[in-house]
């Protein structure tokens, strides 16, 4: 997941009791000042412009800030000098008055609820897929066939993707009538581009499969998988055709102030795939001889296309005017449009960056085609590993983003360094117990979620081993996102691009060594990802230290690592012992009907006890990171209580 996609959830802030602490290259300030400094008394205007998604997020009125209002205007006016019933002097049609803060918070809560519902349905989709196709040939073929459609619908045309962000940003700056014209032009343009790409994909599907998954043609047994992969890719070409138009629709809805539909819209694909799996199982129950495993891939691929088509239909029904004549598009004048030029100048670099991120995934899939079942197993394990990391990233990184932006001046680098040291320590304190507990309980978690029907015990052991390999790099993943936020705040995106390109090359080399030289298989591919993430953190740290003229002091963090590792060991021991004890007790006192419920209770309680032991040992040692964590939790709870009060009074 990218940083711009996480920024859309909002920004929090924390108080700081020491506005001007003296800097020392030691860990003393971590003990004296338990809070992250987030708002200096003097806020000089930064000499840079952050990247577009960051500017949009920080400036969004939906973050809870009231728009500024001129004292001479009535309350219904918005500070542009024209009232809600007038037109602005530049000919723009004035937007509706701002929503009250209660409405903003209610809207934000709805968006958050829709996002959570979409994520839950995504997990349910993976559980259903695991039950229907497991990690066998059909699952392998589907994961290789879905590379291009998934990239089109999720990374390019998905929510918070480059098309969504750039279209929403551009449309929000235009008058309402101009928005409609530009939106229609971009819809037509994206449908035309999508049609060309979809036709080429359909015609050259076999060549694309051979290029992206060469391991599927090394043996006669894999020829069947290759044919299934080619058929499924052809069935998912509607995803490629409509992806760009769907992204434009998301941007149009966001510019009009509707964020609930884009947040829940990805769930349409999950619902369609789940429905296709259920339909396949029902029809297979009627005639087992005709509905074999290869037919399951056809049902699932068709479900993915139906989900994308449903998203497009819902968008069209929302903003289309049935009785209003559509604007005719003159393609000869299309590229002469200034708004089109502005939009494409933002869109093309954003698509390039998304493409670089996707290359790393393509590299893993390329080499996984030589390992039986690796593509499906890596997919399940990666989703489980990223589930807690996405939540933790929002909790840790979002509150400190405004602080990094306001501390970008060289005169403020001492405070930036102190904030960064405390944020790194906070990342370690939060992610290490989660990582340790998940590693210990990886086997039971995978078995409870996925092990049924086609997903047997051997598949559970396989996916659990991959999950552990991914989880090893989870603390580095969070810290990498933190460093990326600092570089964006300093206005330096070139360093991030350089590190991303280097990481892609290194990932390819490690994947090759893992599969062809060391014979490490799928576990080697997952470990390569974790090692590359650790390398990215080290490289970003060195570049940041050089940029800040050595202001970052790693020794202030390093002295606490032995204590953190010892607490991790204690946490893992307690979690393992608790799980075995609870499972033995609950299994002996529950019937077979409630065995999964007993397993879920054992895992939950063991994980809770394991993480509690980690924090308990740190509390006994008066660990400074616990004070920082306590300040963050207090701020989060205050905001949650405030939102609850607003909902009660609405």
From TrEMBL:
UniProt keyword annotations, A-Z: Cell membrane, Cell shape, Membrane, Peptidoglycan synthesis, Transmembrane, Transmembrane helix
Domain of life the protein comes from: Eukaryota
Compositional bias of kind Basic residues: 17-27
Chief place of localization: membrane
GO CC annotations, alphabetized: plasma membrane
Single biological process term from Gene Ontology: regulation of cell shape
Renumbered residue ranges of the record's region Disordered: 1-100
Stored InterPro entries: MurJ
Record keyword Glycoprotein present: no
Transmembrane segments: 186-204, 235-255, 267-283, 295-319, 340-360, 380-402, 423-450, 470-490, 497-519, 525-544, 556-580, 600-621
Record's subcellular location: Cell membrane
Membrane topology according to the record: Multi-pass membrane protein
Protein name: Uncharacterized protein LOC109722787
Species per Swiss-Prot/TrEMBL record: Ananas comosus
Gene transcribed to yield this protein: LOC109722787
């Amino acid at each position: 997941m990218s940083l711009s996609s996480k920024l859309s959830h909002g920004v929090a802030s924390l108080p700081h009791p020491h506005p001007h602490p003296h800097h020392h290259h030691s860990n003393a300030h971590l003990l004296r000042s338990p809070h992250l400094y987030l708002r200096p008394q003097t806020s000089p205007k930064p000499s840079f412009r952050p990247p577009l998604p960051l500017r949009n997020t920080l400036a969004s009125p939906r973050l809870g800030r009231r728009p500024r209002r001129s004292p001479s205007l009535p309350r219904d006016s918005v500070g542009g000098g024209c009232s809600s019933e007038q037109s602005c002097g530049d000919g723009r049609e004035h937007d509706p008055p701002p929503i009250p803060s209660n409405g903003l918070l209610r809207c934000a809560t709805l968006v958050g609820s829709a996002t959570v519902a979409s994520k839950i349905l995504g997990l349910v989709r993976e559980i259903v897929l695991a039950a229907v196709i497991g990690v066998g040939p059909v699952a392998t073929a589907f994961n290789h066939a879905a590379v291009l459609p998934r990239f089109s619908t999720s990374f390019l045309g998905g929510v918070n993707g480059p098309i969504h962000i750039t279209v929403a940003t551009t449309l929000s700056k235009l008058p309402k009538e101009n928005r409609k014209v530009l939106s229609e032009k971009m819809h037509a343009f994206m449908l035309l581009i999508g049609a060309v790409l979809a036709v080429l994909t359909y015609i050259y599907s076999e060549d694309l499969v051979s290029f992206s998954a060469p391991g599927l043609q090394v043996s006669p047994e894999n020829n069947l998988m290759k044919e299934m992969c080619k058929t499924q890719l052809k069935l998912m070409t509607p995803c490629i055709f409509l992806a760009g138009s769907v992204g434009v629709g998301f941007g149009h809805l966001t510019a009009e102030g509707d964020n609930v539909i884009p947040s829940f819209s990805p769930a349409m694909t999950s619902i369609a795939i789940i429905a296709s799996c259920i339909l396949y199982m029902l029809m297979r129950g009627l005639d087992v001889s005709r509905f074999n495993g290869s037919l399951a891939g056809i049902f699932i691929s068709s479900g993915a296309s139906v989900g994308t088509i449903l998203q497009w239909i819902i968008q069209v029904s929302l903003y289309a005017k049935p009785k209003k004549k559509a604007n005719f598009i003159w393609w000869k004048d299309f590229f002469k449009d200034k708004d089109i030029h502005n939009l494409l100048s933002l869109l093309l670099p954003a698509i390039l960056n998304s493409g670089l991120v996707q290359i790393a995934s393509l590299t893993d899939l390329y080499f996984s085609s030589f390992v039986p079942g690796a593509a499906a197993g890596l997919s399940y394990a990666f989703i489980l590993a990223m589930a807690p990391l996405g939540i933790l990233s929002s909790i840790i990184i979002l509150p400190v983003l405004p602080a990094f932006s306001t501390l970008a001046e060289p005169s403020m680098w001492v405070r930036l360094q102190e904030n960064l040291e405390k944020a790194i320590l906070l990342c370690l304190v939060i992610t290490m117990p989660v990582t340790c507990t998940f590693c210990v309980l990886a086997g039971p978690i995978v078995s409870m979620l996925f092990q049924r029907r086609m997903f047997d015990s051997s598949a559970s052991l396989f996916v659990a081993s991959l999950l552990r390999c991914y989880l090893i790099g989870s603390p580095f993943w969070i810290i990498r996102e933190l460093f990326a936020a600092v570089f964006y705040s300093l206005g330096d995106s070139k360093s991030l691009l350089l590190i991303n390109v280097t990481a892609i090359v290194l990932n390819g080399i490690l994947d090759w060594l893992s599969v062809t030289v060391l014979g490490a298989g799928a576990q080697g591919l997952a470990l390569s990802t974790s090692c590359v993430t650790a390398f990215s953190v080290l490289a970003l740290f060195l570049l940041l230290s050089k940029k800040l003229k050595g202001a970052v002091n790693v020794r202030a963090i390093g002295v606490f690592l032995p204590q953190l590792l010892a607490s991790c060991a204690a946490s893992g021991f307690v979690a393992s012992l608790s799980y075995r004890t609870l499972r033995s007790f609950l299994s002996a006192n529950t019937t077979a009907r409630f065995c999964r419920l007993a397993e879920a209770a054992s895992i939950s309680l063991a994980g809770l006890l394991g993480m509690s032991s980690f924090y308990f040992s740190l509390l006994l040692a008066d660990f400074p990171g616990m004070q920082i964590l306590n300040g963050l939790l207090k701020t989060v709870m205050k905001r949650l209580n405030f939102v609850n009060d607003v909902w009660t009074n609405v």
